[in-house]
């Protein structure tokens, strides 16, 4: 089957990584999958032309609003994967909410990453409740064996012996919803007390205006460093070497960095928001903080209590193995896409 797959493909955002993984799953089943950035398609008529020109038989959209709205009315069956901001943010705007409700009415199926995401969608659009499935994101980490941690530290401007350091890694694209500056002041204060703790923010410059703000703030803040995006193998190797992974987002669908950290046996400290709380169970698979001061207290506790770290890491690894199987994710998408075969909406 020839499929159109619309997603938001800004590099190294969570949705882009998910889209690449889902495309691999579908192509492994023998489908031809044309992956397009929803932002590159201005209108429904452009999509109609693409469907005719490429002889496409079905479609998939990752993000109910940005991708899904472009798939309506073309006479080909389609499915939806919720992105996170569609259900958490766009839903608050009446016009977008109505558009998304109509898209779900036409979709054959919709995939939510978490139970809470499914519940939110069902509450907003009760007419679609029977077509929403839960499939957690699958995880596969492949750290680069040639990665050098000391070189990474040097690039970060940290010139201390790696043995005595506690590096907290915050992985995110530089955009406001990821809130990378949320912990900066509190962390810097802690660094002044304990100069061997550092926070390194790693990620692509998604929003140029906001990136300038982040760079300016980090430049004048002790104990906090900023690095650009890294190849995925290097990033996984950096995660494996750091003391803990941090997530301070205002909104998340399901954070790949958190799941990857668990898979790599690294403790996680995450902001207590629904998307994170769906994955991190406080004091079981990680630590959830409610504000910057709470973060510092929990981080200090993690440094002081090796037994806690050991327990969180073991539980996190087991959780990922049980609930975020890459193979289970592959099976789900291959089965759901079969429901798009053999008929059109004409």
Structural features, described:
The protein has a six-stranded parallel beta sheet with strand order 2-1-3-4-5-6, sandwiched between helices. It has a six-stranded parallel beta sheet with strand order 9-8-7-10-11-12, sandwiched between helices. The protein has 14 helices and twelve strands. The protein is elongated and about 65 Å long. 42% of the residues lie in helices and 16% in strands.
Can I get a quick summary?
42% of the residues lie in helices and 16% in strands.
- Strand runs, count: 12
For the termini, the CA-CA separation is 17 Å
Give the SSE string: EHEHEEHHEHEHEHEHEHEHEHEHHH
Percent of residues in helices comes to 40-55%
Top keywords for this entry?
single chain; 346 residues; alpha/beta; 6-stranded parallel β-sheet; 14 helices; 12 strands
Topology readout:
Elements: E1 2-7, H1 14-28, E2 32-37, H2 44-53, E3 58-62, E4 78-81, H3 85-88, H4 94-106, E5 109-112, H5 115-124, E6 132-134, H6 149-155, E7 166-171, H7 184-193, E8 197-202, H8 208-219, E9 224-227, H9 232-241, E10 244-247, H10 256-263, E11 268-271, H11 274-277, E12 287-289, H12 292-304, H13 306-323, H14 326-338
Parallel strand pairs: 1-2, 1-3, 3-4, 4-5, 5-6, 7-8, 7-10, 8-9, 10-11, 11-12
